[in-house]
Specification:
Number of helices: 3
Distance between the termini: 47 Å
Strand content: under 5%
Number of domains: 2
Largest sheet: none
Order of helices and strands: HHH
Helix content: over 70%
Radius of gyration: 27 Å
Length: 106
């Protein structure tokens, strides 16, 4: 999985969350200023919305990781453990070739 792409997507999500939080504070401050809700209600509303956003964001991150993993698999990109296994097999084959060459030269 391309960690840089994943990091960029997460950063975009965090940036969006930050913008939503700023707008939420702005709106709740205006509602308090207009006398439509009291400061305690505004704080409670902001907390509830932010908790919902945090919950959805973690679900979104997990879903994005699954989708990226599936997309890479569909494209035929091997996973890290598959690459490690192939490297190990290649190392063993190289060692066997060296051993055979050494036997031939004796």
């Amino acid at each position: 999985m391309d960690n840089n792409l994943l990091r960029e997507l997460i950063a975009m999500g965090i940036n969006t969350t930050s913008q939503v939080a700023d707008k939420l504070r702005e709106v709740s401050d205006q509602l308090v200023k207009d006398g439509r809700i009291d400061p305690e209600q505004a704080a409670q509303l902001a907390n509830e919305v932010m908790e919902q956003i945090k919950s959805e964001q973690s679900n979104w991150e997990a879903q994005m990781q699954r989708q990226l993993r599936n997309m890479l698999q569909d494209l035929g990109v091997p996973r890290q453990n598959e690459m490690d296994e192939l490297r190990g097999r290649l190392d063993r084959l190289e060692r066997q070739v060296r051993d055979l060459e050494n036997r031939l030269w004796r």
